[in-house]
Design goal:
This protein is mainly alpha-helical and 293 residues long. 56% of the residues lie in helices and 0% in strands.
């Protein structure tokens, strides 16, 4: 996309099949005030040209931006955006390279893609949504209980990439709100948090959700189904966290509740289709279990 200044091009998406050549990586000092550099990470969160203009003026100390400086700052911020996203992707790959519980790298990638789709429809801050989606599991209590409370891995990654403290706190707050915890689940305070939570929950249902449920159950030595073990409904956070059941019961204890917990209109439409698919599957499963089919 070309800007009125003629310098701005859309950031190469780190997960598309083909990526254009990377922009110039020259330092800001070659064409603008040095004080612009600390504020540039604020600028990459913008999703519209008008927001870019406002934030770039702040980054440059409130001065007037000529079109030449404006265009190059935008171009530079796009390059930084791409770098952070690619680094986050690599970080997640390394973190979950040996996960077989359904919380692997590909789960994060799907959540990222869906969160981006929802955020674009809901006019959310794309940078915050994308970073929170990519990092949402690195400090999960199930996967990294020792870093869960302070979100150590997330904070460390964002600090190393120069993300401001306010944005880091926002991302950590979103990550802390994402997980399903039975009746103790949290509704995110921001539209960005709602986008990420919806994307994560959508990956728990539908065809992918079925596959992940059995992957998680097998990884945790859970039996597939036992008609004598009944589902436990409406568990609080502590009960849900410590509960051990069958994989089929998990559909009733969580997955069939997810549709009604969606926050955004975009996610609600997708969730309806995915829940319908799961209901067909469970009906077929139980018929086959009883020898009816």
């Amino acid at each position: 996309m070309a800007s009125p200044c003629g310098y701005y091009s859309t950031a190469p998406h780190p997960f598309t099949r083909a990526s254009p050549a990377s922009p110039s990586t020259r330092g800001l000092g070659a064409f603008g005030p040095q004080q612009a550099a600390p504020g540039i990470y604020q600028c990459i969160a913008a999703t519209t040209i008008s927001t870019y203009i406002r934030e770039l003026k702040v980054a440059c100390g409130g001065g007037i931006l000529d079109s030449h400086l404006f265009g190059k700052l935008i171009y530079r911020s796009v390059s930084m955006n791409e770098m952070i996203m690619n680094d986050a992707l690599e970080f997640v790959k390394n973190t979950f390279h040996d996960d077989y519980s359904g919380h692997d790298y590909f789960h994060t990638l799907r959540v990222y893609k869906m969160a981006t789709r929802i955020a674009e429809q809901e006019n959310a801050n794309l940078m915050i949504v994308q970073l929170a989606a990519l990092l949402h599991d690195v400090d999960d209590i199930k996967l990294s209980p020792e870093t869960y409370v302070n979100k150590d891995r997330t904070v460390d990654f964002l600090r190393k990439h120069g993300i401001a403290g306010g944005m880091t706190k926002t991302i950590c707050d979103i990550i802390g709100e994402v997980s399903f915890r039975g009746t103790g689940s949290t509704t995110p305070k921001t539209i960005e948090g709602k986008c990420v939570q919806d994307a994560d929950r959508l990956d728990a249902i539908g065809a992918i959700g079925i596959a992940r449920a059995f992957a998680y159950g097998g990884n945790h030595n859970r039996i597939i189904y036992d008609p004598e073990i009944k589902p436990t409904i409406n568990m609080n956070a502590d009960q849900y966290q410590s509960h051990i059941s069958t994989t089929i019961n998990h559909f009733y204890e969580k997955l069939f509740q997810v549709k009604d917990l969606m926050n955004t209109d975009t996610a609600k439409k997708i969730a309806k289709q995915r829940e319908d698919y799961m209901k067909i599957y469970i009906s077929e499963f139980l018929d086959e279990w009883d020898g009816i089919r």
